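Encode chain A's predicted structure.
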Amino acid sequence: MSELPAGPQARYWSNLARLLAPPAGTARLKATTEDFQVTEELGFVPSGAGEYLCVEVEKTGLTTTQAASRLTEATGLKRADIGYAGMKDRRARTRQWFSLRLPAGAETRLQSAEDGKLRILQSRRNRRKIRIGSHRANRFVITLRDFNGEREDINHRLRTLARMGVPNYFGPQRFGRLFGNLEKIERRILAQGGEGAARISGNERSLLYSAARAAMFNQALSARLARGDWNRYVSGDVLSLDGPGRLFLPEEGGWDDDLQQRLDALDIHVTGPLPGAAPAQSKYETRGQAADIEVAALRQNTAMLDWLKREGLRAGRRPLRFALRNLDWNWTDGGLILRFMLARGCYATSLLRELCITDGTEQESELES
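Encoded structure for chain A:
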Protein backbone atom coordinates (compact mmCIF):
# COMPACT_ATOMS: atom_id res chain seq x y z
CA MET A 1 0.00 0.00 0.00
CA SER A 2 1.27 3.48 -0.80
CA GLU A 3 2.35 5.71 2.06
CA LEU A 4 -0.36 7.83 3.66
CA PRO A 5 0.39 11.07 5.50
CA ALA A 6 1.24 10.85 9.20
CA GLY A 7 1.30 13.69 11.71
CA PRO A 8 1.07 17.36 10.79
CA GLN A 9 3.00 17.19 7.53
CA ALA A 10 1.06 17.55 4.30
CA ARG A 11 3.19 15.38 2.04
CA TYR A 12 0.10 13.74 0.60
CA TRP A 13 -1.35 17.05 -0.60
CA SER A 14 1.92 18.57 -1.78
CA ASN A 15 2.97 15.43 -3.69
CA LEU A 16 -0.09 15.40 -5.95
CA ALA A 17 0.76 16.49 -9.49
CA ARG A 18 0.06 20.07 -10.51
CA LEU A 19 -1.01 21.57 -13.80
CA LEU A 20 1.51 24.38 -13.47
CA ALA A 21 5.05 24.47 -12.11
CA PRO A 22 5.24 24.45 -8.30
CA PRO A 23 4.61 28.03 -7.17
CA ALA A 24 7.37 30.10 -5.62
CA GLY A 25 5.28 32.95 -4.25
CA THR A 26 3.97 32.92 -0.67
CA ALA A 27 0.95 34.55 0.98
CA ARG A 28 -1.19 34.47 4.11
CA LEU A 29 -4.62 32.88 3.82
CA LYS A 30 -7.42 33.76 6.25
CA ALA A 31 -5.47 36.38 8.16
CA THR A 32 -8.96 37.55 9.19
CA THR A 33 -12.42 36.07 8.73
CA GLU A 34 -13.17 38.81 6.19
CA ASP A 35 -10.41 37.45 3.96
CA PHE A 36 -12.45 34.34 3.07
CA GLN A 37 -16.03 35.05 2.03
CA VAL A 38 -18.39 32.45 0.57
CA THR A 39 -21.95 32.91 -0.64
CA GLU A 40 -24.02 29.81 -1.42
CA GLU A 41 -26.43 29.79 -4.34
CA LEU A 42 -29.30 27.34 -4.10
CA GLY A 43 -30.18 25.21 -7.07
CA PHE A 44 -33.85 26.23 -6.79
CA VAL A 45 -36.01 29.15 -5.72
CA PRO A 46 -38.10 28.48 -2.58
CA SER A 47 -41.72 28.30 -3.65
CA GLY A 48 -43.11 30.69 -1.03
CA ALA A 49 -45.43 28.10 0.52
CA GLY A 50 -44.98 24.89 2.48
CA GLU A 51 -44.12 23.42 5.87
CA TYR A 52 -40.42 24.34 5.67
CA LEU A 53 -38.99 27.80 6.30
CA CYS A 54 -35.84 28.38 4.24
CA VAL A 55 -33.53 30.95 5.84
CA GLU A 56 -30.35 32.49 4.46
CA VAL A 57 -27.86 32.88 7.28
CA GLU A 58 -24.66 34.87 7.46
CA LYS A 59 -22.22 33.33 9.93
CA THR A 60 -18.74 34.24 11.11
CA GLY A 61 -16.50 32.04 13.23
CA LEU A 62 -19.03 29.20 13.31
CA THR A 63 -19.10 25.81 11.62
CA THR A 64 -22.22 24.82 9.75
CA THR A 65 -23.10 22.30 12.45
CA GLN A 66 -22.68 24.94 15.15
CA ALA A 67 -25.00 27.26 13.23
CA ALA A 68 -27.54 24.44 12.89
CA SER A 69 -27.34 23.82 16.65
CA ARG A 70 -28.13 27.46 17.33
CA LEU A 71 -31.18 27.23 15.11
CA THR A 72 -32.43 24.10 16.88
CA GLU A 73 -31.97 25.70 20.30
CA ALA A 74 -33.78 28.87 19.23
CA THR A 75 -36.75 27.07 17.68
CA GLY A 76 -37.01 23.96 19.85
CA LEU A 77 -36.84 21.74 16.77
CA LYS A 78 -35.06 18.42 16.54
CA ARG A 79 -31.82 18.25 14.61
CA ALA A 80 -33.54 16.09 11.96
CA ASP A 81 -35.94 18.97 11.25
CA ILE A 82 -33.13 21.21 9.97
CA GLY A 83 -31.40 20.78 6.62
CA TYR A 84 -28.61 22.46 4.71
CA ALA A 85 -26.98 22.02 1.31
CA GLY A 86 -23.29 21.93 2.21
CA MET A 87 -20.68 22.53 4.87
CA LYS A 88 -19.07 25.96 5.00
CA ASP A 89 -15.86 27.20 6.55
CA ARG A 90 -15.58 28.32 10.16
CA ARG A 91 -12.75 30.83 9.73
CA ALA A 92 -14.68 32.85 7.19
CA ARG A 93 -17.72 35.02 6.58
CA THR A 94 -20.17 32.75 4.83
CA ARG A 95 -23.76 32.91 3.65
CA GLN A 96 -25.71 29.71 3.32
CA TRP A 97 -29.26 28.38 3.42
CA PHE A 98 -30.96 26.24 6.06
CA SER A 99 -34.46 24.76 6.04
CA LEU A 100 -36.47 24.41 9.24
CA ARG A 101 -39.68 22.43 9.68
CA LEU A 102 -41.17 25.35 11.53
CA PRO A 103 -44.90 25.98 12.00
CA ALA A 104 -46.34 29.17 10.56
CA GLY A 105 -46.33 31.93 13.15
CA ALA A 106 -43.23 30.58 14.93
CA GLU A 107 -40.73 32.49 12.80
CA THR A 108 -40.00 35.03 15.55
CA ARG A 109 -38.25 32.27 17.55
CA LEU A 110 -35.28 32.62 15.22
CA GLN A 111 -34.43 36.05 16.62
CA SER A 112 -32.86 34.49 19.70
CA ALA A 113 -30.28 32.70 17.50
CA GLU A 114 -28.86 35.99 16.20
CA ASP A 115 -25.79 37.75 17.59
CA GLY A 116 -22.45 39.01 16.30
CA LYS A 117 -21.65 35.61 14.81
CA LEU A 118 -24.96 34.78 13.14
CA ARG A 119 -27.56 36.85 11.30
CA ILE A 120 -30.75 35.89 9.47
CA LEU A 121 -30.67 37.65 6.10
CA GLN A 122 -33.93 36.49 4.53
CA SER A 123 -36.52 33.73 4.77
CA ARG A 124 -39.05 32.10 2.49
CA ARG A 125 -41.37 29.10 2.74
CA ASN A 126 -40.82 25.94 0.71
CA ARG A 127 -42.50 22.55 0.37
CA ARG A 128 -39.31 20.51 0.67
CA LYS A 129 -36.36 20.27 2.97
CA ILE A 130 -32.95 21.52 1.82
CA ARG A 131 -30.68 18.50 1.44
CA ILE A 132 -26.95 17.99 0.96
CA GLY A 133 -25.98 18.91 -2.59
CA SER A 134 -29.10 20.93 -3.37
CA HIS A 135 -27.08 24.10 -3.96
CA ARG A 136 -25.91 25.08 -7.44
CA ALA A 137 -22.66 26.90 -6.75
CA ASN A 138 -20.62 28.96 -4.30
CA ARG A 139 -19.31 32.49 -4.92
CA PHE A 140 -15.94 33.32 -3.34
CA VAL A 141 -14.12 36.50 -2.43
CA ILE A 142 -10.67 35.57 -1.12
CA THR A 143 -7.90 37.95 -0.03
CA LEU A 144 -4.32 36.69 0.01
CA ARG A 145 -2.23 38.99 2.21
CA ASP A 146 1.50 39.66 2.54
CA PHE A 147 2.21 38.25 -0.89
CA ASN A 148 5.90 37.68 -1.58
CA GLY A 149 6.69 36.88 -5.19
CA GLU A 150 6.18 38.01 -8.77
CA ARG A 151 2.75 39.45 -9.43
CA GLU A 152 2.98 38.73 -13.13
CA ASP A 153 3.55 35.05 -12.33
CA ILE A 154 0.22 34.96 -10.46
CA ASN A 155 -1.50 36.85 -13.29
CA HIS A 156 -0.18 34.28 -15.78
CA ARG A 157 -1.30 31.38 -13.60
CA LEU A 158 -4.80 32.79 -13.25
CA ARG A 159 -5.14 33.38 -16.99
CA THR A 160 -3.96 29.82 -17.70
CA LEU A 161 -6.34 28.27 -15.17
CA ALA A 162 -9.24 30.30 -16.55
CA ARG A 163 -8.50 28.93 -20.01
CA MET A 164 -7.66 25.30 -19.17
CA GLY A 165 -9.66 24.67 -16.00
CA VAL A 166 -8.42 23.69 -12.54
CA PRO A 167 -7.50 20.15 -11.42
CA ASN A 168 -10.58 19.03 -9.52
CA TYR A 169 -8.83 17.60 -6.48
CA PHE A 170 -10.70 16.97 -3.27
CA GLY A 171 -9.09 19.49 -0.92
CA PRO A 172 -7.44 18.84 2.46
CA GLN A 173 -10.78 19.55 4.15
CA ARG A 174 -12.10 16.24 2.84
CA PHE A 175 -9.60 14.25 4.91
CA GLY A 176 -10.10 15.71 8.37
CA ARG A 177 -7.76 17.91 10.33
CA LEU A 178 -4.14 17.24 9.34
CA PHE A 179 -5.33 14.36 7.14
CA GLY A 180 -6.31 12.42 10.26
CA ASN A 181 -9.05 10.40 8.53
CA LEU A 182 -6.55 8.88 6.13
CA GLU A 183 -4.33 7.86 9.04
CA LYS A 184 -7.35 6.33 10.75
CA ILE A 185 -8.22 4.29 7.67
CA GLU A 186 -4.68 2.96 7.47
CA ARG A 187 -4.20 2.18 11.15
CA ARG A 188 -7.64 1.09 12.30
CA ILE A 189 -9.16 -0.51 9.22
CA LEU A 190 -6.74 -1.53 6.52
CA ALA A 191 -4.18 -2.92 8.97
CA GLN A 192 -6.94 -5.17 10.36
CA GLY A 193 -8.28 -6.32 7.02
CA GLY A 194 -11.34 -4.10 7.36
CA GLU A 195 -12.46 -5.56 10.69
CA GLY A 196 -11.77 -2.30 12.52
CA ALA A 197 -14.73 -0.71 10.72
CA ALA A 198 -17.14 -2.69 12.90
CA ARG A 199 -16.11 -0.62 15.93
CA ILE A 200 -16.69 2.75 14.25
CA SER A 201 -19.97 4.65 14.45
CA GLY A 202 -22.08 5.12 11.34
CA ASN A 203 -21.33 8.85 11.05
CA GLU A 204 -17.59 8.33 11.46
CA ARG A 205 -17.63 5.44 9.00
CA SER A 206 -19.30 7.70 6.45
CA LEU A 207 -16.50 10.26 6.85
CA LEU A 208 -13.90 7.55 6.35
CA TYR A 209 -15.65 6.27 3.23
CA SER A 210 -15.64 9.82 1.90
CA ALA A 211 -11.94 10.31 2.67
CA ALA A 212 -10.94 6.99 1.08
CA ARG A 213 -12.86 7.61 -2.15
CA ALA A 214 -11.49 11.15 -2.34
CA ALA A 215 -7.92 9.94 -1.85
CA MET A 216 -8.25 7.39 -4.64
CA PHE A 217 -9.85 9.88 -7.01
CA ASN A 218 -7.01 12.31 -6.31
CA GLN A 219 -4.55 9.52 -7.03
CA ALA A 220 -6.15 8.85 -10.42
CA LEU A 221 -6.28 12.57 -11.29
CA SER A 222 -2.64 13.01 -10.29
CA ALA A 223 -1.69 10.18 -12.66
CA ARG A 224 -3.55 11.80 -15.58
CA LEU A 225 -1.94 15.18 -14.82
CA ALA A 226 1.50 13.57 -14.79
CA ARG A 227 0.72 12.00 -18.18
CA GLY A 228 -0.46 15.35 -19.57
CA ASP A 229 -3.86 14.04 -20.71
CA TRP A 230 -6.06 15.05 -17.78
CA ASN A 231 -7.94 17.44 -20.07
CA ARG A 232 -7.65 15.44 -23.30
CA TYR A 233 -9.86 12.64 -24.51
CA VAL A 234 -8.30 9.17 -24.35
CA SER A 235 -10.06 6.29 -26.06
CA GLY A 236 -12.60 4.82 -23.65
CA ASP A 237 -12.96 7.90 -21.40
CA VAL A 238 -16.26 8.71 -19.70
CA LEU A 239 -17.18 12.40 -20.09
CA SER A 240 -19.48 14.74 -18.19
CA LEU A 241 -21.34 17.92 -19.01
CA ASP A 242 -20.18 21.04 -17.21
CA GLY A 243 -22.80 22.20 -14.71
CA PRO A 244 -25.36 19.38 -14.62
CA GLY A 245 -22.61 16.77 -14.55
CA ARG A 246 -24.53 14.27 -16.67
CA LEU A 247 -22.26 11.47 -17.88
CA PHE A 248 -21.93 10.19 -21.41
CA LEU A 249 -19.72 7.91 -23.50
CA PRO A 250 -18.80 8.86 -27.07
CA GLU A 251 -19.57 6.10 -29.50
CA GLU A 252 -16.67 3.96 -30.62
CA GLY A 253 -14.76 6.08 -33.11
CA GLY A 254 -17.22 8.91 -32.53
CA TRP A 255 -14.82 11.53 -31.22
CA ASP A 256 -15.01 14.49 -33.60
CA ASP A 257 -14.14 18.16 -33.98
CA ASP A 258 -17.37 19.27 -32.31
CA LEU A 259 -16.62 17.28 -29.14
CA GLN A 260 -13.02 18.52 -29.17
CA GLN A 261 -14.20 22.12 -29.35
CA ARG A 262 -16.57 21.55 -26.45
CA LEU A 263 -13.74 20.00 -24.43
CA ASP A 264 -11.48 22.98 -25.20
CA ALA A 265 -14.28 25.38 -24.20
CA LEU A 266 -14.76 23.66 -20.79
CA ASP A 267 -18.28 22.65 -21.79
CA ILE A 268 -17.48 18.96 -21.21
CA HIS A 269 -14.84 17.26 -19.06
CA VAL A 270 -12.98 13.98 -18.79
CA THR A 271 -13.97 12.14 -15.59
CA GLY A 272 -12.12 10.03 -13.03
CA PRO A 273 -13.20 7.21 -10.70
CA LEU A 274 -14.93 7.36 -7.33
CA PRO A 275 -14.11 3.74 -6.47
CA GLY A 276 -16.55 1.19 -5.16
CA ALA A 277 -18.57 -1.75 -6.39
CA ALA A 278 -19.69 -1.21 -9.97
CA PRO A 279 -23.52 -1.18 -10.24
CA ALA A 280 -25.03 -3.93 -12.34
CA GLN A 281 -25.18 -3.11 -16.05
CA SER A 282 -23.43 0.21 -15.53
CA LYS A 283 -23.18 2.20 -18.76
CA TYR A 284 -20.53 4.58 -17.52
CA GLU A 285 -17.33 2.61 -17.08
CA THR A 286 -14.06 3.41 -18.78
CA ARG A 287 -12.86 1.08 -21.50
CA GLY A 288 -9.70 0.37 -23.43
CA GLN A 289 -6.79 2.75 -22.91
CA ALA A 290 -8.62 4.93 -20.39
CA ALA A 291 -9.46 1.89 -18.25
CA ASP A 292 -5.85 0.72 -18.34
CA ILE A 293 -4.69 4.12 -17.06
CA GLU A 294 -7.21 4.07 -14.21
CA VAL A 295 -6.43 0.51 -13.17
CA ALA A 296 -2.71 1.28 -13.04
CA ALA A 297 -3.31 4.37 -10.88
CA LEU A 298 -5.70 2.67 -8.44
CA ARG A 299 -3.50 -0.42 -8.17
CA GLN A 300 -1.08 1.66 -6.10
CA ASN A 301 -3.50 1.27 -3.19
CA THR A 302 -5.28 -2.05 -3.64
CA ALA A 303 -6.01 -2.46 0.08
CA MET A 304 -8.13 0.71 0.19
CA LEU A 305 -9.80 -0.16 -3.11
CA ASP A 306 -10.70 -3.66 -1.91
CA TRP A 307 -12.07 -2.24 1.36
CA LEU A 308 -14.39 0.16 -0.46
CA LYS A 309 -15.67 -2.64 -2.66
CA ARG A 310 -16.26 -4.96 0.33
CA GLU A 311 -18.20 -2.23 2.07
CA GLY A 312 -20.54 -2.07 -0.91
CA LEU A 313 -20.01 1.57 -1.84
CA ARG A 314 -21.40 2.29 -5.26
CA ALA A 315 -18.81 3.37 -7.80
CA GLY A 316 -19.21 6.78 -9.40
CA ARG A 317 -17.46 9.37 -11.56
CA ARG A 318 -16.22 12.93 -11.01
CA PRO A 319 -14.85 15.49 -13.51
CA LEU A 320 -11.07 15.76 -13.55
CA ARG A 321 -11.25 19.55 -13.75
CA PHE A 322 -13.56 22.44 -12.96
CA ALA A 323 -14.16 25.73 -14.70
CA LEU A 324 -13.47 29.04 -12.99
CA ARG A 325 -16.61 31.08 -13.60
CA ASN A 326 -16.86 34.87 -13.19
CA LEU A 327 -13.16 35.06 -12.39
CA ASP A 328 -11.82 38.50 -11.54
CA TRP A 329 -8.86 39.68 -9.49
CA ASN A 330 -7.06 42.84 -8.48
CA TRP A 331 -3.97 43.80 -6.53
CA THR A 332 -4.16 46.16 -3.56
CA ASP A 333 -1.74 47.34 -0.91
CA GLY A 334 -3.15 44.57 1.28
CA GLY A 335 -2.60 41.79 -1.23
CA LEU A 336 -4.46 39.92 -3.95
CA ILE A 337 -8.27 39.84 -4.01
CA LEU A 338 -9.80 36.94 -5.97
CA ARG A 339 -13.45 36.68 -7.01
CA PHE A 340 -14.86 33.59 -8.69
CA MET A 341 -17.68 31.06 -8.70
CA LEU A 342 -17.35 27.30 -8.31
CA ALA A 343 -19.89 24.56 -8.92
CA ARG A 344 -20.88 22.54 -5.87
CA GLY A 345 -18.33 20.00 -4.71
CA CYS A 346 -15.33 21.96 -6.03
CA TYR A 347 -12.63 23.22 -3.69
CA ALA A 348 -11.09 26.68 -3.62
CA THR A 349 -7.99 25.10 -2.07
CA SER A 350 -7.41 23.22 -5.33
CA LEU A 351 -7.17 26.57 -7.09
CA LEU A 352 -4.95 28.16 -4.44
CA ARG A 353 -2.36 25.35 -4.54
CA GLU A 354 -1.72 26.23 -8.19
CA LEU A 355 -1.18 29.92 -7.36
CA CYS A 356 1.10 30.25 -4.35
CA ILE A 357 2.25 28.69 -1.09
CA THR A 358 -0.08 29.61 1.76
CA ASP A 359 0.33 29.23 5.51
CA GLY A 360 -1.81 26.06 5.70
CA THR A 361 -4.78 27.50 7.58
CA GLU A 362 -7.07 26.13 4.88
CA GLN A 363 -6.81 22.74 6.59
CA GLU A 364 -9.20 24.04 9.24
CA SER A 365 -11.98 24.33 6.68
CA GLU A 366 -14.98 22.08 6.68
CA LEU A 367 -15.76 19.35 4.22
CA GLU A 368 -17.16 21.08 1.22
CA SER A 369 -16.60 24.24 -0.70
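The chain has three domains: 11-23+165-322, 26-34+136-162+324-359, 44-133.
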